[in-house]
Specification:
heterodimer, A: mainly alpha, 66% helix, elongated, disordered C terminus, B: mainly alpha, Clc chloride channel, CBS-domain, 3-stranded mixed sheet, 19 strands, 56% helix, disordered N terminus, OSTM1 protein (chain A), transmembrane (chain A), Osteopetrosis-assoc_TM_1 (chain A)
């Protein structure tokens, strides 16, 4: 019913009811409709790919289209007079400026996710390094699954040794690649980019690392407590030796007192002595 | 019952405690056997002399002043501004240099150690990483300590006590030389890179002062270069003004706090102020922070951004949750109390340590070994703390400069490492700004405890390094801990952000240690960039000072006292009204006659037992041995210049071409007058006469014998005198009051105490 009412209203406007009321030109209206559709599609995409995060991989097409649509609104000039162009009537003629707000929201989200970082320079498709990373990521996930298949007790905390042994190579590769990407990014980061990688890559790495070191408990560092304690207690022991030996062997510095040349009058000394006694 | 010997003993009451037997001996044989005692705080060293802040208004000076016309005075005034601008620029550049070099060298060190630790975490053998870290630290600190201990010992420490003394009017040998500046700058870089618990902010103040002293003289004696400019400023009075500007510029570069710098000069150093000087000093400070800011912003790649005004930048404190409410004020005051107590504890511990160091660790090689040991232990403590810590935090972007994983899961870092495995400046900023939950309370508690002792142990080593940053760091750590526990107690209500408490804790701790008030408030306010924090910071610093002063005095005053410097405070001790000039003065005084025999002058100057610097000139009355009326005062330095140029009465009559001595001759010799031994006077010349009337100051300040000590003190302190002649009612010299005569009275625990003079 609501939609019907809307359509009716549009038709009425279209019929050019009262001439003095400001109206939206048909071109502008179609631009607006396209923008609305595009933003709905992008929202849908973002929502669906929120967990596990696949925003940049899945939604970059939508985002690019939306950008183009917004651009055409901002640029488009209606066919009547200058004052009635679409940009003005859609973007700036009311307090709310909802189109601007929506577009800003998407831009900010895109910035925060840092998607530009894993897309190609013209933002068509993923960059090569990202593709490589995601390949490796899928490979390691497959490896994890493969090695866990035969097992029934998924939740038992121990006994993941097989996974650790078999997938170590892929995992290490993945980890190294990630670190490389990060380092490259940081070096490039001084020319304006922020230091984060794009959210897809970060999230993928986080999931893998968590699985690897929390769930499978694979990265067990060698803890060599005994040598560390030995070395540190040796170093901590040195100052004690130093201070003791300098206390015992060093000659204490003496000061030579100098007698001042001064009148010792009775009155003042009595005064001072009273104070002391 | 008052026998003369008991009088003498009472005169020496200062070192009452240990040496009763030596006293007995000394009173009986006062001159035969030098009296040796261990170093203690109740001594005044003979090593320190006064500066001549009072112009010697002799005929030469008056002639020169008369010759300078109005326009020439304008040029002098313009020169002063130019010098201040140069001081600001150079201080800013030195600060940039220190900052950039420290950043790169420390970055290199931490990367090497981090790679090593990462490698050995996987394979085992972390003890090697520990050894590597400790050795790196120790060797870097060794270099820093060697240059200080062997080349320029006065560059040790933060330099603030020394500058305080200089501005008070005490001539600390070598304190404003170029060599000191070089050693200071290199030393501070090495000690920060060496990972000691020190900051580079305090030494900036000393550096600024040296730069100021150097520029204002237009020459460098160390480099043997004289640029023949700014000759008018070659005297202590003018130099002092520039040195205070330099100190202000140093503070301003260190903290990005120009107003704080000016107030620092006012609070800590200045004895003599007027509004023109203040305005000039402010100018120098502003120039200094602006220079630092623009150079660093170019270095960081965003030129014209001007976002790094100081060496340490506390970061922005203007977000919503950093605001405070009126209910929090009592909590802040309580933090002030805690800071005062901890500061007093710090000072007391450091007092004992310093005393031990002065008595037993006085050989340079021992000092170097000690500094190396401290560096190694600092690294070890850091390593052990990181090793034992199980506090892992997820890595968020690149907020952590050198994330150490160690035993944490992949993708996480050890949060103890952000505190220990970093330069102290960065750790402070992390403690202020890391989001809540970045540190667990256990980590903070252990860190505070360890760092407290490390910082206390480090201050007073023979390396050049400041105490500001370590204090801030200790305070920020316990302040953050305090904030976290508050939000635990209140079940996470309004007081959520621990960064605010970290800031207050830092202020409290620093105030508790150094006991600065006005300037520190403004410095903290400017460093945070938030004026609304002024009120709580002021309250915190006030409380910390009141509580701390109840126990022991501030760190800088303590060190000044331990160095046996004759430091004059603002006022005479309150209970000293009963003393008069007669008891305070030294007597008899070595006087010179107006026309004196050269031999006598040379003998007096060469007498090592009485190393006087000012001599009252009396009427020539050759037949009497009686001291005659006072005519003027002449300084040792002037006599030496006269002897060097052989300005003898006989020679003046002989040679017509002889040039008249000008004020310039005295200035050229300033500030390092040759010792008397280097001046050769032949037997014939010894018989000549020397006429002092043209060179002596004919109107020296005098007091009658009956003047009370506070009155004498006021005259002396307010005018910055070096010698004050005590005369009787016939204007005959009866005694002389110098700085050491006044500084030896001090208000101790049991009332008025008297310090003794000692040779050091």
């Amino acid at each position: 019913a609501l939609e019907a009412a809307e359509e009716l209203a549009e038709e009425l406007w279209g019929a050019g009811l009262p001439g003095d009321l400001p109206e939206l030109e048909p071109e502008c209206r179609s631009l607006l409709a396209a923008f609305a559709k595009g933003s709905a599609a992008l929202t849908d995409c973002l929502g669906r790919r929120a967990r596990p995060v696949r925003l940049c991989q899945g939604c970059h097409g939508h985002y690019r289209r939306l950008l183009a649509q917004y651009g055409s609104i901002a640029r488009a000039v209606g066919n009547s007079s200058e004052s009635h162009n679409c940009a003005k009537s859609i973007l700036t003629s009311d307090r709310l400026q909802i189109v601007v707000t929506i577009s800003e929201f998407f831009n900010e989200t895109w910035e925060a996710a840092n998607c530009a970082n894993c897309l190609k320079n013209n933002s068509e498709g993923l960059s090569n390094s990202t593709e490589e990373f995601l390949d490796l990521f899928n490979k390691s996930l497959t490896c994890f699954e493969h090695n866990l298949q035969g097992r029934t007790d998924y939740l038992s905390p121990n006994n993941y040794t097989e996974v650790c042994k078999n997938c170590n190579e892929t995992y290490t590769k993945l980890n190294d690649l990630y670190n490389d990407l990060q380092r490259m990014n940081r070096q490039g980061g001084e020319s304006g980019h922020s230091a984060h990688l794009c959210i897809d890559v970060e999230d993928a790495m986080n999931i893998t690392r968590k699985l690897w070191s929390r769930t499978f408990n694979c990265s067990v560092p060698c803890s060599d407590t005994v040598p560390v304690i030995a070395v540190s207690s040796f170093i901590l022991f040195l100052p004690i030796v130093f201070y003791l030996s300098s206390f015992l062997h060093s000659k204490q510095k003496k000061r030579i007192l100098i007698l001042p040349k001064r009148i010792q009058s009775n009155a003042s000394l009595v005064n001072i002595q009273e104070k002391y006694s | 019952q008052l026998t003369p010997s008991s009088f003498l003993r009472i005169g020496q009451l200062s070192n009452v405690d240990l040496n009763e037997d030596i006293h007995e001996l000394e009173t009986e044989l006062p001159r035969q056997r030098p009296n040796e005692i261990p170093h203690n705080e109740k001594l005044l060293s003979l090593k320190y002399e006064s500066l001549d802040y009072d112009n010697s208004e002799n005929q030469l000076f008056l002639e020169e002043e008369r010759r300078i016309n109005h326009a020439a005075f304008r040029t002098v005034e313009i020169k002063r501004w130019v010098i201040c601008a140069m001081i600001g620029i150079l201080t800013g550049l030195v600060a940039c240099f220190i900052d950039i070099v420290v950043e790169n060298l420390a970055g290199l060190k931490y990367r090497v150690v981090k790679d090593n630790i990462d490698k050995f975490t996987a394979k085992g053998g972390l003890s090697f990483s520990l050894l590597l870290w400790a050795t790196l630290n120790a060797s870097v600190v060794m270099v820093g300590s060697v240059i200080v201990a062997f080349i320029e010992p006065v560059a040790a420490g933060s330099g603030i006590p020394q500058i305080k003394c200089y501005l008070n009017g005490v001539k600390i040998p070598h304190v404003v030389r170029l060599k000191t500046l070089v050693i200071k700058v290199c030393g501070v870089i090495l000690s920060v890179v060496g990972g000691l618990a020190v900051g580079k902010e305090g030494p900036m103040i000393h550096s600024g002062a040296v730069i100021a002293a150097g520029i204002s003289q237009g020459r460098s004696t160390s480099l043997k270069r004289d640029f023949k400019i700014f000759e008018y400023f070659r005297r202590d009075t003018e130099k002092r003004d520039f040195v205070s500007a330099g100190a202000a510029a140093g503070v301003s570069a260190a903290f990005g706090a120009p107003v704080g710098g000016v107030l620092f000069s006012l609070e800590e150093g200045a004895s003599f102020w007027n509004q023109f000087l203040t305005w000039r000093i402010f100018f120098a400070s502003m120039i200094s922070t602006f220079t630092l800011n623009s150079v660093l912003s170019v270095y960081h790649g965003n030129a014209w951004d001007l976002s790094s005004p100081g060496l340490i930048n506390f970061g922005r404190f203007d977000s919503e949750k950093m605001g405070y409410t009126i209910q929090e004020i009592p909590i802040f005051i309580f933090m002030g109390v805690v800071g005062g107590i901890l500061g007093a504890l710090f000072n007391a511990l450091n007092y004992w340590l310093t005393m031990f160091r002065i008595r037993y660790i006085h050989r340079p090689c021992l000092q170097v070994v000690e500094a190396m040991l401290v560096a190694a232990v600092t690294a070890t403590v850091g390593f052990v703390m990181i090793y034992c810590s199980r506090d892992c935090q997820p890595i968020q972007g690149s907020s952590v400069a050198y994330p150490l994983q160690l035993f944490c899961a992949d993708g996480e870092y050890n949060s103890m490492a952000t505190a220990f495995f970093n330069t102290p400046e960065k750790s402070v900023v992390n403690l202020f700004h890391d989001p809540p939950g970045s540190y667990n309370p256990m980590t903070l508690g252990m860190f505070t405890l360890m760092y407290f002792f490390l910082a206390c142990w480090t201050y007073g080593l023979t390396v050049s390094a400041g105490v500001f940053i370590p204090s801030l760091l200790i305070g920020a750590a316990w302040g953050r801990l305090f904030g976290i526990s508050l939000s635990y107690l209140t079940k996470g209500s309004i007081w959520a952000d621990p960064g605010k408490y970290a800031l207050m804790g830092a202020a409290a701790q620093l105030g508790g240690i150094v006991r600065m008030t006005l300037s520190l408030t403004v410095i903290m306010m400017e460093a945070t960039g938030n004026v609304t924090y002024g009120f709580p910071i002021m309250l915190v610093l006030m409380t910390a000072k009141i509580v701390g002063d109840y126990f022991v005095e501030g760190l800088y005053d303590m060190h000044i006292q331990l160095q046996s410097v004759p430091f004059l405070h603002w006022e005479a001790p309150v209970t000293s009204h009963s003393l008069t000039a007669r008891e305070v003065m030294s007597t008899p005084v070595t006087c010179l006659r107006r026309i004196e025999r050269v031999g006598t002058v040379v003998d007096i100057l060469s007498d090592t037992s009485s190393n006087h610097n000012g001599f009252p000139v009396v009427e020539s009355n050759p037949d009497t041995t009686q001291v005659a009326g006072l005519r003027g005062l002449i300084l040792r330095s002037q006599l030496i210049v006269l002897l060097k140029h052989k300005v003898f009465v006989e020679r003046a009559n002989l040679s017509l071409v002889q040039r008249r001595l000008k004020l310039k001759d005295f200035r050229d010799a300033y500030p390092r007058f040759p010792p008397i031994q280097s001046i050769h006077v032949s037997q014939d010349e010894r018989k000549c006469m020397i006429d002092l009337s043209e060179f002596m100051n004919p109107s020296p300040y005098t007091v009658p014998q009956e003047a009370s000590l506070p009155r004498v003190f006021k005259l002396f302190r307010a005018l910055g005198l070096r010698h004050l002649v005590v005369v009787d009612n016939r204007n005959e010299v009866v005694g002389m009051v110098t700085r050491k005569d006044l500084a030896r009275y001090r208000l101790g625990k049991e009332g008025l105490e008297e310090l003794s003079l000692a040779q050091t």
